[in-house]
Amino acid sequence: MTSTPHHPDLRSQLETLTTEAFRPELAEIDQSPTLDIARVMNGEDAAVAAAVAEQLPEIAAAVDAVAARMARGGRLIYAGAGTAGRLGVLDASECPPTFNTAPGQVVGLIAGGAEAMVTSVEGAEDSAELARADLDALGLTADDSVVGVSASGRTPYAVGAVEHARARGALTVGLACNRGSALAAAAEHGVEVVTGPELITGSTRLKAGTAQKLVLNMISTITMIRLGKTYGNLMVDVRASNEKLRARSRRIVALATGAPDDAIERALTATDGEVKHAILTLLADVDGPTAARLLEDSGGHLRAALAAARG
After folding, report:
1. Among 19, 33, 65, 199, which residue carries the largest CB count within 10 Å?
2. CB proximity list for 238: less than 8 A, separation 6 or greater
């Protein structure tokens, strides 16, 4: 296992990071009224979107590269420790119900495994070897994309994941919240959202965590848009796995087609509840099997399938 830095070395490293900087002007915040503390936190959070905005060209380039790999059958894999790892697992877990992604198409790896989602796993974030083992267990290929996530940009697990993935020919993205980070340098696409010192010194689940959530939202959502998982801004690949989602499916078909309720019910019945297929049967006046064939020929892109049906 890779050795971890001695405490004095690690302390000197942390002191150079803006995410770890101490803010003397907040040294008395524990004596402030609750509403005042809430106002300060709210003001801090308001600056996060602007920090993300500065990295939009880098984010967009990374998204286009990820989408190109996924269109070839590759996977999107997040790798991080602690808060960063949990955010990756969260984003990955929300892709199947939102975009009907296949099992294992979007994966969240967290240092220490499932246990680390709810409790701290001693030393897991300090192991680059653990990251390599986790990626090898997935059978990493050159079509996959690995996004290392770390507020500090120095976490060995995240850096190790990106280095190993890049050596295997996979696409790599390094998302950090400090400039000049080892993580961004190790990746093909570096994204450094500099959110500055935290309200509570070193508590990077705050602004840095919010920034990471915003960027992961962009990576997964825009990638899925590029892959044809939406029609306009409608979730046409939604998986109707509960009553709320079944109701949402009917509403999406209604918004896309303007069809009456009885026609929507017939279309969803004819297509086994597949929203995208139901929309195509209504807009192109085709039956369920024809809609399925058109969508398969168009790689799942509804607009292209509609154009083919009408042409």
Report:
1. 19
2. 97, 98, 99, 100, 245, 248, 249, 252, 275
User: What's the rounded Cα separation, in Å, for the pair 214 and 14?
Assistant: 24
Which residue type sits at 130? L
Known catalytic residues are 94, 125
Given the structure tokens 């099997």, which residue do they identify?
A: 289
- Helix boundaries (H) for the chain: 7-14, 34-46, 48-53, 56-71, 82-99, 128-137, 156-167, 182-186, 207-226, 243-257, 261-270, 275-284, 288-297, 302-310
56-65 pLDDT, tens digit per residue, is 999 999 999 9
Give, as one character, the DSSP assignment of residue 108.
E
Residue that has been written with the tokens 């490293």 in this structure? 13
Determine whether 9 is exposed, middle or buried from the number of CB atoms within 10 Å of its CB (0-12, 13-18, 19+): exposed
Q: Cα–Cα distances in Å, from 200 out to 170, 205, 206, 223?
A: 37, 10, 8, 34
Contact predicate 266/290, CB 8 Å: no
pLDDT tens-place string over residues 46-87: 999 999 999 999 999 999 999 999 999 999 999 999 999 999
Spatial separation of the C-alpha atoms in residues 172 and 122, rounded to whole Å:
27
